[in-house]
Amino acid sequence: GIQAAAGVDYYLMEGFFFGFEIKPISFIYAYSTQIPAPGLEERQAETTTLSFFTQPFLKVGFRF
């Protein structure tokens, strides 16, 4: 998959910060095959996901 990320960090003091991050676009493609037992046909699954402005994060961090 491919994702873009954008964010802002605000340092309250040296080594301590708050932040906000969001992923404005995300594309994920997944393909899976499985053979359940010898002699049986192969099973297949395929998924495509496209999303916009998802997974917002608030961060609190310490830097050493």
Structural class designation: mainly beta
Shape: elongated
Count, helices: 0
Mean pLDDT, all residues: 89
Strand content: over 45%
Q: What oligomeric arrangement do these chains adopt?
A: single chain
Radius of gyration: 20 Å
What's the number of domains?
1
What spatial order of strands do you see in the largest sheet? 1-2-3
Major β-sheet annotation: 3 strands, antiparallel
Secondary structure: number of strands: 3
What distance separates the N and C termini? 32 Å
Low-confidence sequence ranges:
none
Q: Give the H and E element order.
A: EEE
Bin the helical content: under 10%
Description:
This protein has 64 residues and is an all-beta fold. It has one domain (2-62). It contains no helices and 3 strands. It has strands at residues 2-13, 16-34, 43-62. A 3-stranded antiparallel β-sheet has the order 1-2-3, with no helix packed on it. It is elongated. 0% of the residues are buried. The model has no long low-confidence stretch (mean pLDDT 89).
Quick summary:
This protein has no helices and three strands.
Give me the secondary-structure topology.
Elements: E1 2-13, E2 16-34, E3 43-62
Antiparallel strand pairs: 1-2, 2-3
Give me some keywords for this one.
elongated; mainly beta; 64 residues; 3-stranded antiparallel beta sheet
